[in-house]
Amino acid sequence: MDKQRCSWANPANPLYLAYHDTEWGVPCHDERRLFEMLNLEGAQAGLSWETILNKRENYRAAFDQWDAHKIAAYGPDKVAELLGNAGIVRNRLKVAAAITNAQAYLRLLDSGSSLDKLLWSYVGGKPIVRGDGPRPAKTELSDRLSKDLAKLGFKFVGSTIMYAYMQGIGMVDDHAPDCFCRKARK
């Protein structure tokens, strides 16, 4: 018998099902993955998450496995290489945002903090498990997180992007009430 999943999980895409089943809504505290997901959610702006998910391995290869130190030092030659890479979304603003985000992230680390400390402080270290109602595109919390990250110099961190990010890294568990992932966490 097939597992009951959230309606958005495309059953025809094994990558999407694996993402839904093992990552989405699962609390993440791994710095590199938090940085990766921040940038991938930004790259997703205006596109479907499935498009970005299908390109995730290409992004990892293109962006040095999301090594912020390397990305922060990218110059014009690397930017040109990225803009010519058909395996990622070739949008100049999104590529520039990844570099800016790496620089902002390194400043955050230099200040003695981390994405893990910063992000999870917004929810007291515990995920928000949403009820049965409709899933919002953004919330007051994602508004606040968006503004705070922007003040720190991060780009492509609008409130809607931040709400999707919060779902993706498990700060918010928005699995449908009948989804096996929600039931497994009860």
List the helices and strands and how they pair.
Layout: H1 14-22, H2 31-44, H3 49-54, H4 56-62, H5 68-72, H6 76-83, H7 92-110, H8 115-121, E1 128-129, H9 140-151, H10 159-168, E2 172-173, H11 180-184
Parallel strand pairs: 1-2
Describe the 3D structure.
It contains 11 helices and 2 strands. The chain has helices at 14-22, 31-44, 49-54, 56-62, 68-72, 76-83, 92-110, 115-121, 140-151, 159-168, 180-184; strands spanning 128-129, 172-173. It has a two-stranded parallel sheet. The two termini are 21 Å apart. The model has no long low-confidence stretch (mean pLDDT 95). This is DNA-3-methyladenine glycosylase I. It holds the Pfam family Adenine_glyco. InterPro entries: Adenine_glyco, DNA-3mA_glycosylase, DNA_glycosylase.
Instruction: Give the topology string: H per helix, E per strand.
Output: HHHHHHHHEHHEH
Task: Tell me, rounded to a whole number, the average pLDDT.
Answer: 95
Overall, the morphology is globular
Straight-line distance between termini? 21 Å
Uncertain regions: pLDDT < 50 for 5+ in a row? none
Task: Specify the helix fraction band.
Answer: 40-55%
* Percentage of residues in DSSP E strands: under 5%
**Structural class given helices, strands, pairing?**
mainly alpha
Number of separate helices:
11
Q: How large, in whole angstroms, is the Cα Rg?
A: 16 Å
Strand order, biggest sheet? 1-2
Largest sheet: 2 strands, parallel
- What's the number of extended β-strand segments? 2
